[in-house]
Design a protein that fits this description.
The protein has 125 residues and is an all-alpha fold. It has one domain. Helices cover 57% and strands 0% of the residues. It has 6 helices and no strands. Helix 2 runs antiparallel to helix 3 and helix 5 runs antiparallel to helix 6. The C terminus is likely disordered.
């Protein structure tokens, strides 16, 4: 009986650790107040300039190999994506989230484009 309780407790702790780490990893996406694991001040300044000047080509080059967002955001929808970025920086996370969802992007809360609470880790950096 003690072995079963110990095994169940250990399993529960492992599952909790997995869910907590998934939330931590995905927290920075779409939230400008949280720095991602590959943050650099130089890259950040270049990204801000791309958003400020609505320069999709510069943004695309900066995002090369950095996840699914670069596959979804294109020259046509970049102004909308840029607007979501500006709203998030201004603290309007609800407005930014609505735009991100309309583009099919994950939100800071982990809600996927399908409206599920999945925490996919593929292609995230």
């Amino acid at each position: 009986m003690n072995k079963i309780i110990l095994a169940l407790t250990a399993s529960a702790l492992v599952l909790m650790a997995i869910f907590v780490s998934a939330d931590t990893v995905s927290a920075y996406q779409g939230d400008p107040s949280v720095r991602g694991p590959n943050y650099s001040a130089e890259h950040h300044r270049a990204m801000e300039k791309a958003f400020d000047t609505n320069n999709f080509s510069a943004w695309r080059d900066l995002m090369a190999g950095r996840g699914r967002v670069a596959d979804i955001v294109n020259k046509t929808n970049f102004p909308k994506f840029s607007e979501a970025h500006k709203l998030a920086e201004a603290g309007d996370m609800t407005g930014a989230e609505k735009i991100r969802q309309s583009l099919g992007l994950d939100t800071p809360q982990g809600v996927s484009r399908m409206g599920t609470n999945s925490h996919r880790g593929q292609n995230r950096r």
